[in-house]
Amino acid sequence: VLDVRQLYSQTGMFTYDPGFASTASCESKITYIDGDKGELLYRGYPIEQLAEQCDYMEVCYLLLFGDLPTASEKEDFVHGVTYHTMVHEQLKNFYNGFRRDAHPMAIMVGVVGALSAFYHDSTDIRDPKQRLIASYRLIAKMPTIAAMAYKYSIGQPFTYPRNDLSYSANFLHLMFSVPCETYHPSPTLERAMDLIFTLHADHEQNASTSTVRLAGSSGANPFACIAAGIASLWGPAHGGANEAALEMLEEIGTPDQIQTYIAKAKDKDDPFRLMGFGHRVYKNYDPRAKVMQKAAHAVLDELGVSDPLFETARELERIALEDEYFIEKKLYPNVDFYSGIILKAMGFPRSMFTVLFALARTSGWIAQWNEMIEDPSQRIGRPRQLYTGPTRRDIKPIHERG
Ligand code: ACO
User: Fold this and answer.
1) Cβ(360) – ligand 1 distance below 6 Å
2) CA torsion 84→158→57→211, rounded to 10°?
3) Of 151, 175, 280, 334, which one is least surrounded by beta carbons within 10 A?
4) CA-based angle 51:56:59, to the nearest 5?
5) Residue spans with biased composition (Basic and acidic residues) (predicted)?
6) 248 CB less than 6 Å from ligand 1?
7) For ligand 1, atom 26, which residue shows the shortest CA distance?
8) Ordered DSSP codes for 123-143
9) Residue 175: which of 104, 236, 245, 244 has the closest Cα?
């Protein structure tokens, strides 16, 4: 491993690495990706096993504490998290300040950042107890805050959390219950929601996680750091891709249009890309996309929905995977390719897709943030640059310029 610190101090040299494609910014014990094999491990456990055998609360525990919980550890953890599901009543005022048609991600960035103004007893990052309470608070409150953003956008009253439900069932209740009718998700939908959370929980040093770490490296409080992560996740090249992928499938419409869009994606003069395809690290099938495709079947069957977009998606995948361009560039479906189809079938509006991603990724962000704070070699993140602007010059009086 190249010790860049040594290289810089001994020679004054530093590396130029746009997009940090070959720069490790930290050491981490949390998530491992083998992009060539298409393998993803959380703390050593394969994502397929976690998706099949664990629920999201166990995954959160695993990411935060390093191993899967025993039954009693899980009980304590779930109790600790559910204790914090409510938000301060005054927080409602923040929602009222947004336009009714505000994108829920815009609301998320603002409201999550505002948590630091409410929970002063969990902003001292040097105190492990305060860090733990902040972690619990963030994991617990995200579903409440996310559902409030949705309810606000459709003009319905906010729903209060139910601590007798699982994390995922509670979120579905927050989203879809109304004062006159409680929403009861079927076990298949509750499981699918939980699976989506698990698949999105962490993914090593992606743009939003790196943003959380960079913001945190200055000593900023955890709520501010997670708000920064949410902002970074919003972009269509990252978390916004699930929304963009469904939009693209709707635009393609029927399988007979696929070739036109494949041609557009291959055309260097056309900025169009197949959304939900390609990944900086995976040069093989994203293992999360496989689990997601299977879950899409289960959800559509359960709901008795036959969504033609699912057929279009599968046909698009089949055609792309046989196409020279995609083979040569190693472009495969990523986690976002099928998630939109499931979320749409479950009744989520497109504008909430990235919010769900943010909710699920909060466990990974906060685990990574804690790991960074506890790392004795941690110092403020401060990349260098290659300066390409003017050389030194002197200012002329204003009448002599131009
Ligand atoms: N469709 C068509 N061509 C693509 C695609 C795509 N989806 N993705 C990459 N390419 C091509 C690029 O045009 C480029 O071609 P070139 O070498 O001829 O210039 C080559 O593949 C490499 O692409 P880069 O953009 O350099 O790869 P990078 O690692 O920087 O980007 C990214 C990865 C952003 C995910 C990219 O594949 C993309 O934009 N995909 C679509 C958006 C998407 O699905 N994002 C979700 C990512 S997963 C996540 O955040 C959960």
Assistant:
1) no
2) -80
3) 280
4) 80
5) 391-402
6) no
7) 280
8) --TT-HHHHHHHHHHHHHHHH
9) 104
CB 135 within 8 A of CB 172: no
Tell me the whole-structure pTM to 2 decimals.
Answer: 0.92
Cα angle at 191 between 188 and 193, to 5 degrees?
110
Give the whole-number percent of the chain exceeding pLDDT 90.
86
pLDDT digits (tens, 9 = 90+) for 234-276: 998 888 888 899 999 999 999 999 999 999 999 999 999 999 9
ipTM of predicted complex: 0.95
Residue 253 is classified by DSSP as: -
Residue 401, SS3 per DSSP:
coil
- Residue 334 Cβ inside 6 Å of ligand 1? The answer reads yes
Query: How many angstroms separate the Cα of 247 from the Cα of each of 34, 184, 243, 251, 275?
Result: 30, 29, 6, 6, 9
CA atoms within 13 A on the CB side of 280: 13
Helical ranges in 329-387 per DSSP H: 336-345, 353-374
- CA 278 – ligand 1 centroid, Å: 5
Task: Tell me the CA distances in angstroms from 225 to 24, 62, 112, 183, 215, one per residue in order.
Answer: 20, 21, 9, 33, 5
Token representation of residue 170: 């509670």
203 a catalytic residue = no
Two structure tokens written together for 97:
């300040």
Over the stretch 273-327, which tens digit does the pLDDT of each residue have?
999 999 999 999 999 999 999 999 889 999 888 889 989 999 999 999 999 999 9
Residue with tokens 């993140």: 381
